[in-house]
Every structure is written in structure tokens, then in C-alpha cells.
Amino acid sequence: MKTALRVLLSLAVALGLVLLLMAWGGVDLAELARAWQHISPAALAAATAIYALQYLARAERFRALFPPALRPSFATTLSVTSAYGMATLILPAKMGEATFVVYLNRAGGTGASQAIAALVVSRLLDFASLFLGFGVASIGLAASGSHAELAWLAPLGGALVVASAVVFWLAVRGDVFVRIATGVARALGLARFALGKKLVERIDSLAGALRESARDGRALRGALWSLPMWLCVFAFCAVLGRGFGLPDTIGFAAASFGASLAILTSIVPLSAFANFGTLEAGWVLGFGIFGVSRELALATGTGLHLVQLGLAVAFGLLGHVGMGLVARRGSAS
Predict the structure, then answer these.
(1) Which of 101, 107, 142, 295 is most exposed, with minimal Cβ within 10 Å?
(2) pLDDT (tens digit, 9 = 90+) per residue, 302-325?
(3) What is the CA radius of gyration of the chain?
């Protein structure tokens, strides 16, 4: 009952945010529907193929973060990754993230500490990859000379690349990250309170697993898998953005810039269902910088978001079927 109420609340928040954006942009439902007239079956097929490639790379990245002796099979990890991807969109944030640990334990028998360590490192790699893509897109746009009026693009790109390098380092050296987090928590005196003490204990319990993930180049291999995975994310957004009607002046760099800003705003913890409203806000802001009208940006962003949700649910259901097959095969053997 509590989970159902949280999902209903997140639906209400998402609907309210989308309606506010529609009122701000002067967009009605008919204009949102017209965006679907632009999209071709070829564009949808290409986006689906890219989305599938992203899951393949994500699953291999998760596998790379486990020691060889405890590494789950590719079929198990791909099934869990697909099911987990759907859960993180539909369920509230904390519950969605927890499904990875639960699913991997049930389907592959993986211990919680190892799964949590892989999840933490993968999230750090996601932020590092996002910053890198955002930064490279900004530098590329500045170097092209086509946006001379946006003098801040080059400094922004440089700062993002530096931030990416720092987060990549923290991901590869997870033990350092744990020590920093524990030191900050203790310096703030959080250990004096029951909740703070619990937090410090949980961070400490991760230290061994995170330190282990840095051995044998596992975190580095995970970082390398992050690059093609996030290239697929940006390509997915570019293909659908153009497919839903973004102008020809929006190239891959500009599409990556707008998508990066949309992904960043979707992280805002407003508990909106599937990040509806928060993602569109960043999409409208990002492409508005390049002269795309709020009406067109909102229509294309909403179309992309609906396709993403549909694919996440479809792949998630397949993932649940896959987990069942893997578990049945394991019990039979």
C-alpha cells in the first residue's frame, strides 16, 4: 500500500510538472500529438537498436566490476540490468536502486555487498561519462565557431571535462571515495546521532567491497565500457530528437548538449514518475539555447520520453522473463 501511494504521488507530481511546462510553453495536447507525425518507423527502429546496444554495454560494465570468481553470467546480468532499468523509472528512487541488489541475488546468488559496490561504482561512472559527454559537446560547439555568441561554452566544457576526470578517479579508487565520505560524516559529527551512526556504519561496510573493485583493473574496465554505453545514450537522444522534429541545424554535438542538460535536470529529486516534467524542463532549456522554440522542444522532448518509457517497460518485462529462465536453469542444474 505504501509503495502504491508513492507511485501515485510520483504520477501526480509528473503530471503537474508537465502541465506547468505546457502552460509555460503555450503547448496543447494537439501540438504534442503532431510531433508523432514527424517520426518515421526507420527512426524508431534505429532508436530501439541503439537502446538495446546500450543495455548490452551496461550489462558488460556491471560484469566487469565483479571479481572473476563471483562474476555472474552475461545472461543473468543482462536480464537483471533490463529489469532494473524499468524499476528505476517506475519506482521511487531508493526502491528502484534497491532492485538491482535484490534481482542479482535472486537470479545469480550474488552477495549484497558485492552488488552494492558494483552499483555505487557504476553510478559514479555514469556521472563521469555524462560530464565528459557534456563537456566534449560544449568544447566541440565552441570550436565549430557556429555559436560565437555563446562565449561560455568553452569554459563550461573545460570545467566539465575536469569534473569528469575527478569523478572517474573516484570511481576507479572507490576506497578513497569511501574514506572521504566517512571522514566528512565524522567531521560533521553525524556519528553522534542514531541515523548518522547508521550511515557511517553502512559507508564503512562498503569500504572493503569498493576497495576490492579497484583491484585487477576491474573499475578501469568498467570505465572503458561506460564510453560506448553513454555514446549510445547520446545517439538515442539525437536520433529521436531529430526524428520528432528538431531542426537540421541541431547536429550531434548540440543534441548531446541538450540531452546532457535534460538528464541532469531529471536527477532532481522531485519524485516525478519516470522523471516526467524534470527531463522535459532540461530539454526545453538546453535546446532553447540554440534557438529551438519552447513549443517544439517540449513536443520533441515529450515524444522522446514516451519512447524511452515504452522501451524501458518492454525490455524490463523481457528482463523479468530472462531472470525466471536463468533461475529455473540454475535450479535444474
Answers:
(1) 295
(2) 889 888 888 988 999 999 899 888
(3) 21
Q: Which three cell numbers stand for residue 83?
A: 529489469
**How many H helices and E strands in the chain?**
13, 0
Compute the Cα dihedral for 229, 231, 234, 240 and give only its sign. Answer: negative
Q: What is the mean pLDDT of residues 128-143?
A: 96
Length of the chain (residues): 333
Among 130, 94, 120, CA closest to 271: 94
**Angle, helix 2-25 to helix 278-288, in steps of 10 degrees:** 30
Please give the full DSSP string across 63-87, using - where no structure is assigned. Answer: HHTS-GGGPPPHHHHHHHHHHHHHH
DSSP code at position 270? S
Residue 298 CB neighbour total at 10 angstroms: 26
The rounded distance, in Å, linking the Cα atoms of 9 and 70 is 39
Name the pLDDT band for 32 (thresholds 50, 70, 90): low
Q: Is the pTM of this model over 0.85?
A: no
Q: What is the DSSP letter of 36?
A: G
Which residues 6+ apart lie within 8 Å of 333 measured at CB?
none
Q: How far is CA 114 from the centre of its chain?
A: 21
pLDDT in tens, 80-127: 999 998 888 876 656 677 888 888 988 888 888 788 888 888 988 999
Q: Between 72 and 9, where is the model more confident?
A: 72
Q: What angle do CA 146, 139, 287 make, to 5 degrees?
A: 60
Q: Give the span between the Cα atoms of 53 and 60, in whole angstroms.
A: 11
* Angle in degrees, CA 41, 45, 49, rounded to 5: 175
